[in-house]
Amino acid sequence: VAARRSYHEKVLDHYNNPRNVGSMKKDAEDVGTGLVGAPACGDVMKLQIKVDPANDTITDVKFKTFGCGSAIASSSYLTELVRGMTLEQAGRIRNTEIAKELCLPPVKLHCSMLAEDAIKSAISNYYTKNPKARATDLGGT
Ligand code: FES
Ligand code: FES
């Protein structure tokens, strides 16, 4: 019962008070946009990151999710997690970390996968716009 309650608390908290909902200018050079869908249910997530080109650090994050409560909670939690991270660190986030934090049941694992896909897609969009940044990151140790 305790585990069940904590699942509801964390998911419901993010669901009722989602952090960092919104969007940024897609065309801005320092913004990366990820738009992904979950084949399992058709839910869609848009995630945007603003990057400080001086150190490849994520300075701002916004999301919009058209999906279930777990998908909204996953993206909300993800935005808190990646703020301040380097692109490299953010690219290493696994959906299992998100699922664990939110205590998602197995049937809801794909909802957290949507969040992992979204951050990866946002990072790769940023790199497409800023090929130099990718070269630096890959060249680093
Ligand atoms: Fe997608 Fe839950 S099945 S909203
Ligand atoms: Fe499909 Fe949650 S994203 S049920």
From TrEMBL:
A Gene Ontology biological process term? iron-sulfur cluster assembly
Q: Look up the record and name the cofactor or cofactors this protein needs.
A: [2Fe-2S] cluster
- Which pathway does it operate in? Cofactor biosynthesis; iron-sulfur cluster biosynthesis
Subcellular location, record wording:
Mitochondrion matrix
Cellular component (GO) terms are: mitochondrial matrix
The superkingdom listed in its UniProt entry is Eukaryota
- NIF system FeS cluster assembly NifU N-terminal domain location is 7-130
Which segments cross the bilayer? Answer: none
Gene Ontology molecular function: any one = iron ion binding
- Key words of the record: 2Fe-2S, Iron, Iron-sulfur, Metal-binding, Mitochondrion, Transit peptide
> What is stated as this protein's family in its record?
Belongs to the NifU family.
Function per UniProt: Scaffold protein for the de novo synthesis of iron-sulfur (Fe-S) clusters within mitochondria, which is required for maturation of both mitochondrial and cytoplasmic [2Fe-2S] and [4Fe-4S] proteins.
The name on file for this protein is: Iron-sulfur cluster assembly protein
Organism annotation: Zasmidium cellare ATCC 36951
Q: Which residues of the full protein are shown?
A: 39 to 179 of 203
